[in-house]
Every structure is written in structure tokens, then in C-alpha cells.
Amino acid sequence: MNTILKSTPYCDLLAQGTTQEGEDVSAVERIYVKDQKREEIRFAWYKLKDGKPQFQLRPLDLTEEELLLLFKDGLKEGVFSSEFRAKLKEQL
Predict the structure, then answer these.
(1) How do residues 24-73 score in pLDDT, each as one tens digit?
(2) Quick one: CA dihedral 27, 28, 32, 38, positive or negative?
(3) In the chain, which end has fewer C-beta atoms inside a 10 angstrom radius, N or C?
(4) How far apart are CA 79 and CA 16, in angstroms?
(5) d(CA 8, CA 10)
(6) DSSP structure class, residue 3
(7) What is the residue range of 81's domain?
(8) What domain count does the chain have?
């Protein structure tokens, strides 16, 4: 299992790619969902409050350019498995 960056009762955060614009932080995350006992990819939106990111219970809306930047950071930070990357490459 990967190193745990953060743990909550719901999941463990294993890897995270982010971009930031002002107080808004967009994230693509590899999480381990405890009840499901499986790893998943989550797209999330955080708002900085007093310098700390707070999870927002709203959808993450991005332009295509912003999505590419977020995806690029997710690749760099190890969010996506090599198997997923190979399958994605086949699709492109």
C-alpha cells in the first residue's frame, strides 16, 4: 500500500495532484475507501481558509486547460497507476 498522506474515517489519501487559483484548490486524488476496501480516483475542490485547505461538498468544475494542468500534476505525483496510464495511452 502507498504512504498515507491523510486519513479520515471515510478514506486514506494516498496521492494527490493539485492546481491552485487564488483560494481555490483543484485536486485529483488516489484514495483508499475503507468500507469498499478499494482504491479510487477522486476529483475534489478545496477552499483555503486561514491558509488550510477545506474540502468542499460541491462538484469540481474546470476548463479543459485547467483539467490538463491538474491531470499533469496528478501524473507527476503518482495518482495514476502504470496500468491506467497504459490503457489511457491506447485510447489516445
Answers:
(1) 999 999 999 999 999 999 999 999 999 999 999 999 999 999 999 999 99
(2) positive
(3) C
(4) 6
(5) 5
(6) P
(7) 6-91
(8) 1
